[in-house]
């Protein structure tokens, strides 16, 4: 068995044999053996990839389902998904699309990853207000970042090798008159006004500019261009983009007289209705510089029992049989959090590589007394401590003061009492003397303070 190891931004995927960079299965939640992340593969339990993506809950809305099932069960087709550079990184919502693309490619179909060098200059309509237009230089820079990210999740080898395209290549040379005559004439304003994103903005105080109103035409033109250049007959995207997806299918039908298809994946929300992947406005980015592997791992580890099986279906390549077993474990032994541990391992390894996943699991173990803090790599340890209450102190700072600075105690006197009661440790060693100082002896010049069994804080010395 092999596992796919995905490297840092721009690096090519590499293959590693099961057992390399392995992690304890107690963390993955199965038995006492050793496992690594699952290799991307389609599930042989399904007759075709359409049945699998339906079972995984990836089809919220689509064009003709019977036609799609036949299409995806037959000869290889070309399909695409677009990613606009409205930020310097993709996020978990985009990961749904990347995983869907990968599943279709594993079934033999040919992916086109479109990075929106032109649509990124415009921006699709948001529900509430007009987007801020970024500079051309910023968008061009972000195009490069997103391109390298998309490349990490697809295969560029074999008969169905992926291809990356940029819609600026066919949009930039077109004059406004050509755009209106060749594309705009096929659109009816009444139909455009009925699109959900447009209708929501028309009914808001902000209204909608002609720029964002025209976005659906640009996306429709993308599908037409890819149909003409590559024979592309399917587009995937989020269900909130359904109006833009059907803009392309309708345009191709009018201009070329053929039927093409679209699949809208569900918007992922938590069982309590809250938006998935964001906490206090902070998205879970796929770029390690914007969201560390440790933070990503912890995000998945904290998945609610009510959500974890759906997440395993969408975000991992575990088989139906494996996921059904985790469903049984969630019901029978929820306290073990076996499904959450496996989910965190699988997604972190897929996004950041098996080495990074192993490192963050080792850090989680060591922080809670099941490993050697001094053996951790400096970057992973720092990322882990950044997720805890933490403080930066000068070299030689008294442990009592560090307890106060990190918020583990509310006063110096409370800190002294905690030490006297034997309830404080520094870097895994019990603090016996209240005059002890923080030295930052762990890798990267940091220390770990613990009060009691489970209350931790990070100390950055410098």
From TrEMBL:
InterPro entries: aa-tRNA-synth_I_CS (IPR001412), aa-tRNA-synth_Ic (IPR002305), Rossmann-like_a/b/a_fold (IPR014729), S4_RNA-bd_sf (IPR036986), SYY-like_C (IPR054608), Tyr-tRNA-ligase (IPR002307), Tyr-tRNA-ligase_bac-type (IPR024088), Tyr-tRNA-ligase_bac_1 (IPR024107)
Gene Ontology CC annotation, any one: cytosol
GO biological process: one example: tyrosyl-tRNA aminoacylation
Highest taxon listed in the record's lineage: Bacteria
Location, primary (coarse class): cytoplasm
GO molecular function, one term: protein homodimerization activity
Positions of L-tyrosine binding: 80, 215, 219
Catalytic reactions on record: tRNA(Tyr) + L-tyrosine + ATP = L-tyrosyl-tRNA(Tyr) + AMP + diphosphate + H(+)
Positions annotated to bind ATP: 278
Function description: Catalyzes the attachment of tyrosine to tRNA(Tyr) in a two-step reaction: tyrosine is first activated by ATP to form Tyr-AMP and then transferred to the acceptor end of tRNA(Tyr).
Known partners and oligomeric status: Homodimer.
PANTHER family named in the record: TYROSINE--TRNA LIGASE, MITOCHONDRIAL, TYROSYL-TRNA SYNTHETASE
Protein name: Tyrosine--tRNA ligase
């Amino acid at each position: 068995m092999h596992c796919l190891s995905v490297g840092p931004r721009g690096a090519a995927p590499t293959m590693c044999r099961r057992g390399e960079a392995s992690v304890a299965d107690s963390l993955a939640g199965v038995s006492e053996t050793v496992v690594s992340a699952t290799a991307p593969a389609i599930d042989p339990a399904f007759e075709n990839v359409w049945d699998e993506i339906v079972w995984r809950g990836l089809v919220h809305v689509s064009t003709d389902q019977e036609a799609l099932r036949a299409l995806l069960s037959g000869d290889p087709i070309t399909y695409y998904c677009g990613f606009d550079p409205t930020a310097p990184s993709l996020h978990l919502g985009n990961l749904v699309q990347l995983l869907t693309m990968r599943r279709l490619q594993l079934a033999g179909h040919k992916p086109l990853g479109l990075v929106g060098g032109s649509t990124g200059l415009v921006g699709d309509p948001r529900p509430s207000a007009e987007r801020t237009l970024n500079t051309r230089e910023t968008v061009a820079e972000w195009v490069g970042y997103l391109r390298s990210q998309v490349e990490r999740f697809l295969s560029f080898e074999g008969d169905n090798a992926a291809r990356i395209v940029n819609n600026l290549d066919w949009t930039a040379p077109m004059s406004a008159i050509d755009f209106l005559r060749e594309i705009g004439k096929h659109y009816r304003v009444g139909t455009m006004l009925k699109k959900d994103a447009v209708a929501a903005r028309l009914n808001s105080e902000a209204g909608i500019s002609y720029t964002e109103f025209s976005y659906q035409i640009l996306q429709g033109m993308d599908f037409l261009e890819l149909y003409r250049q590559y024979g592309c007959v399917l587009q995937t995207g989020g269900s909130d983009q359904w109006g833009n997806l059907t803009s392309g299918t309708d345009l191709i039908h009018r201009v070329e007289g053929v039927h093409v298809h679209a699949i809208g994946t569900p918007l992922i929300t938590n069982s309590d209705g809250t938006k998935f992947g964001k906490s206090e406005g902070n998205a879970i980015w796929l770029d390690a510089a914007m969201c560390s592997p440790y933070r990503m791992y912890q995000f998945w580890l904290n998945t609610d029992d009510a959500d974890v099986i759906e997440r395993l279906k969408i975000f991992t390549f575990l088989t139906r049989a494996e996921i059904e077993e985790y469903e049984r474990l969630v019901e029978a032994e929820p306290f073990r959090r076996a499904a959450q541990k496996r989910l965190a391992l699988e997604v972190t390894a897929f996004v950041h590589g098996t080495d990074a996943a192993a490192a963050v699991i080792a850090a989680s173990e060591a922080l809670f007394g099941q490993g050697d803090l001094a053996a951790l790599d400096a970057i992973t340890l720092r990322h882990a401590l950044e997720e805890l209450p933490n403080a930066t102190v000068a070299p030689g700072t008294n442990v009592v003061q560090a307890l106060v600075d990190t918020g583990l105690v509310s006063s110096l006197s409370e800190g002294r009492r905690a030490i006297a009661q034997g309830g404080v440790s520094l870097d895994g060693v019990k603090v016996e003397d209240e005059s002890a100082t923080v030295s930052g002896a762990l890798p990267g010049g940091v220390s770990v303070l613990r009060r009691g069994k489970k209350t931790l804080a990070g100390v950055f010395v410098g």
